[in-house]
Amino acid sequence: MLSEFTTELMVFVICVTLIVMLLCVFVILAVYRYKRKQLYYNKEIKLLRSEYEHTILSSQIEIQEQTFLHISREIHDNIGQKLTLAKLYLNTLPASYHNIPETRISHCLQLLTESISGLSDLSRGMSTDFVLSNGLVKAIEHEVALLNRSGVYAARFTIEGEELFLEGNTELVVYRIVQECIHNFVKHAGGMELLIHLLYQPDNLRLTIRDNGIGLNNAGPKGAGMIHMRKRAELLGGSFTAKDAGNGTEIEVSIPVPHNSK
Amino acid sequence: MPKYLRIITIYTTIAGVGAIISILIHFKFKYVWDIVINFFDATTILHLSLLAYFFFSLLPKKYHKYISIIFVFSLTLTVVILIKDWDSSLLSRCFIVSNFALILMAITYYWDLLNSEPRIDILHDPAFWIVTGIFIGMASNVVLLTLSHLLFVKYDYMRYALTSIFASFFYAVMHLFFVKGYICYRNSRRN
To answer: CB–CB of B11/B51 below 8 Å?
Structure first.
């Protein structure tokens, strides 16, 4: 009688244990399936968000470039022309006209020449045409020359490696980053020297900009300029790092270049 | 606190009070099984309706809610009819039927969960742990009660004793899952 009860008890315990184990397996499988689905879902969401941000950023940059181009053309074709005409009139004005002293006329002429030159530089800096037709190197050289012309700063631009053919959009983005860096250097860094180094690697373009200013740690909160530079670099699938180099700021931008870009 | 968690709080409180009362009855009137059984009989309907209400407030789809309500009504009716013609062995059958309904509701919850957008982190979701507790607790009890009817036919007293021990263990496990659900809720509020 006891053995019969023991057998029944064993069957009972085994069955209950098995069922409980099965239930646990069911729950674990449900969690596993849900988690896998969640992983896939999160990846998809991340991808969609990244695509969305990419599109928004591209549109923003396109709009910005269009605005720059418009202003640049306006300066070149309208204001520049009028100032040149004014200069021409002044040049043809007889010195004795209305007893205006000659020095004053020559001073006006000098001011007009400087304005025309300044506007021309501004127009060139804004225009996408300048970068696209002359290339990135020439455009950066132009920016460096402008900075040196001020007489306050000493800027140097060096190139290393075999120059690669870059797409117009890539060159434009790199150029805008350089412009933003120069702007930040003049406005916030408080330094005197600036070094721009462009390194062409077989599949990568590395841009390093270093100054001898107060450095990032003392420059206060990061502005929108830094964010825009990072976004521009990320738009091309590259990276952007800005760090305090002890005696100044060092900015490094890395942009991947397709293999057939030679 | 979400509604479903409030229902579970009420359920846990009633279960705790019920357990204390049943122990008191047992010690006061030793071997008076009928009283204990009658008491549990009354709590069957409460147990079923509270947990069914829990699922009703938890399930996201309307038609799932209504199916659960129909289930509860029909099963409660069955339980009431069965209790009318009282037989001590019917009690566990009532439990089997009511627990089976709860298992189906838990499966409906899992179905909804696996077929919806996986936005929540289920391992930190109180509802998931509570439903898992109900699912494991109820499914184990259904198997337990069914097997006890099939196996220990000759040993009535032993059957009651074994079933009580195992059922209590599974109810304890179920309440541990509820505790886990409460902890998840508390953590989510802190974060």
So the answer is: yes
